[in-house]
Amino acid sequence: MGDSSQTIVVAGGSLAGHTVVTELERHGFAGRIIWVRGREGTAPYSRPALSKELIQGKVTAETIRLPVPQPYGPRTRIMDGAVCARLDPHADRVLVTRTDLENRVVGREDRAGPDEQWISFDALFVCTGTHARVPGAFAGLPGVHSLRTLADAERIKERLAVRPRTVVVGAGLVGSEMAASLRSCGLPVELIVQGRLPMEAVFGAELGRFCLEQHHANGVTTRLGTTVTGLSAAGPRGPVTLTYDDGRQSTADMVVLGLGAVTSCDWLDGCGLDLSDGLGCDEAPRTARPNILAAGDVANWRHPLFGHRMRVEHWSNASAQARHAVESWLAGQEGRRPPAFADVPYFWSDQYGLKYQMVGHARGHDEVRVEEAGTGGYPFVTYLREGRVVAAAGVNAPRAVMRTKA
What we know:
It is built from eight helices and 26 strands. The chain is an alpha/beta fold. The strands form seven sheets. Strands 3-2-1-7-19 form a five-stranded parallel β-sheet, with helices on one face. Helix 2 links the parallel strand 2 and strand 3. Helix 1 (15-26) runs parallel beside helix 7 (315-333).
């Protein structure tokens, strides 16, 4: 498949990038694949396990590695500890560097340093995902952690041996999962909820209230409607002082930030592509340069089923969209019209032995229906817009959720 003279560059080493490379190998791509896997310098792994099973000690770093073709094709080159630093706006080539992006020389369009090289491509798959949102004033403080990578999770795990009093800042998916996992380890945990309820931005008020009740039932203390305005550390092992928007303060041995994520596409600045929220794509998902496609957390594409643009930061979407991106590129090579990516978004979250699941996209819903489904009488919620079901979520209700997806 493909011309042996062709070169495909895959930017990003998480699930989406892994899936693109695997799919190209599976289809027998005859050209070169250059996989720029990023700064982590590690083989791909299951990211959802970080805030749950890994923190709780149920799995290890080795057991969450993703399966890979063995061996990779002889024309596949893996570049660990390297990133795509810039896309040439006038040609199909990327600058790959092993140096810190913050320290690179800006404005050199044609010259590369000793740790840099320009790589020309026939197709570029952008799978660079997101990185943890960390306010500049909080970055690098002793005892303050974010959770996005395996290294982040292992640093947090190292601290658990001293049973630290922990404050989790932010109550979205990662924050709520971290609070639940730390409590499952028997640690004292306080959860700072910036909004009214944990996970309300994802599930709405109905499941948000249920989530809050579960945190309280399992011994987590909470501060609702509270923002952390300042953090300061007494020293490498000293307590962290938190200052809140009401002027109050508290201390903790460890602080975990769950403040969301930022798309990792700043290296595309100035190349003429839509970067308003991630990397803008059509339904295929191709960018304004048809030989540049995106998949995973970074992709912002128009969903043909829901009728609007969306960017989905979920594990199942990353693999499905990456497979589709490869199919779209193959269709273009064969002169076929690339198919639209129309998978229904799906994600899950495990907390306190309960499984939260959601399908669809609830944005813009104007009606909510709550009932009980599954065992245990847990809530099942459907979200409607103009009388049409656009999403559903439930707790320990897999059949009801999957039936709605279909």
